[in-house]
Design brief:
With about 270 residues, the chain is of the alpha/beta class. It is about 35% helix and about 20% strand. It contains 10 helices and 11 strands. The strands form 2 sheets. The protein has a 6-stranded parallel beta sheet, sandwiched between helices. The chain has a 5-stranded mixed beta sheet with strand order 1-4-3-5-2, sandwiched between helices. Helix 3 links the parallel strand 3 and strand 4.
Amino acid sequence: MKEITALGIASPEVKMAKDLLSGKKVSEAKDLFVCEGLWAAEKLIQEKITVPYFFFCPEIIKTPEEQAQVDALSNYAENSYSISMKACSKISDREGADGFFIIAKMPSYSLSDLENKLEDNMVIMILDGQEQPGNIGAILRSLDCAGGQFAIMTNRRVRLTHPRLIRSSLGAAFLMPVAEAPMDELMDWLEKHNFKAIVTDLTATKSYREIDYTGRIAIVAGNEFKGISPEWRNKKISQPVIIPMLGSCESLNVGFASTLVAYEAGLRQKGL
């Protein structure tokens, strides 16, 4: 068992954890993210993701299962600290602090890294200029659930390590490869590797259920307010589709829309 250091509320480590969770000094630790609670403990250890810091309040451990998770993570993390509930409340960005804070290092991927993961039939997601971290996290979670392999961010407005993004992704943000690339480089890469870019468009004539999902499929999820970037409409690889609206609203939230298309593509490719 590794040595566990007890920290006071005014310690530099507690302040560092608070700054990370609140988004301060991100430039100094841009590859670190915080998971509040123990929900990610097993996933981080299984995937061998680096955990520089683990903070926990001994008073809040209630079950043998929680104790086993704390012991495993304390041994795995590079530095483990016990803190008071008062320190937990200082770190947490919400009421009812869980009493456990895992600070881990986000894996980094480039487009060339993703080439090792290409398959003849696959589904990926393009995150184009989205601004709401909760939306991005939910989309990554949906992509994972639909059997998608990886995602690529372009025109990025939100850091991948944002706490709300991490929380809403339920781990998909760090378990699934997510790369970032400029738009022109991304489009050339998709064309080079024979992807079809599925873009939802209110002017499209084909329903998302009427197209061919064989091969390499890239689903484009656009900005929550402006939609996809105009460049997508002029590309040979782009295939516009429409999701029929049965009520008075003209479109779905981008998270729901991309989830529908991702599941349609995933189920079709698996013959379900």
